Amino acid sequence: MRMLLLAGAIVSTAAVVALPVRAQDSGIAIGAIAPGAAVETLDGKAIDLDRYLGKTPVLIQFWATWCPNCKALEPKIDAAIRKYTGRVRFVAVAVSVNQSVERVKAYREKHGMLQDILWDRNGLATDAYEVPATSYIVVVDAKGKVVYTGVGSDQDIDAAVRKAL
After folding, report:
1. β-strand partners of 40
2. What's the CATH number where 31 sits?
3. pLDDT of 46-64, one tens digit each?
4. What average pLDDT does this structure show over 80-106?
5. Phi, psi at residue 156, to the nearest 5°?
């Protein structure tokens, strides 16, 4: 009986430890063609993500004002924006969970966010990109192919963007 309990505890612990690894492997597949998705500008105008695709490389971040990993990524995103301005587009897709457009606007102003910020009111972009969590980054090359995905605060944003160049 003790051996069964111990084996069960090991399996349970291994499953919990493995969760972050599987989370990194979830989301839209590397090599997939990035889909469009209906979102909105922060002033409520309809726009589609496909507007950004297939022209230049683009980094899309699925983001929230309340996300500590997103906050931790801000300096890396800002550095990449400064380094690749004119060569790469940067888009933050604000998820609509536990935040409002007004809260996103206030955060943008307070923190001087430099990327385009879009509002995913109905979760269509989140669904299209199979987003596993906020702080999810998708880098798409100029042909519209996904070349990088990642989640969490320890992503190497510069290396991810270079994959698209």
Report:
1. 46, 119
2. 3.40.30.10
3. 999 999 999 999 999 999 9
4. 96
5. -90, 90
Starting from the edge strand earliest in sequence, which strands make up the sheet with 58-63, in order?
46-48, 38-41, 116-120, 89-95, 58-63, 136-140, 146-150
pTM recorded for the entire structure: 0.84
Residue 89 forms beta bridges with which residues?
Answer: 58
Please name the residue that has the structure tokens 């069964």: 4
Torsion of the alpha carbons at 152, 157, 162 and 164, rounded to the nearest 10: 50
Q: Domain span at residue 44?
A: 2-162
Question: What's the confidence (pLDDT) of residue 26?
Answer: 81
Residues 117, 47: contact at Cβ < 8 Å?
Answer: no
- How many structural domains is the chain composed of? 1
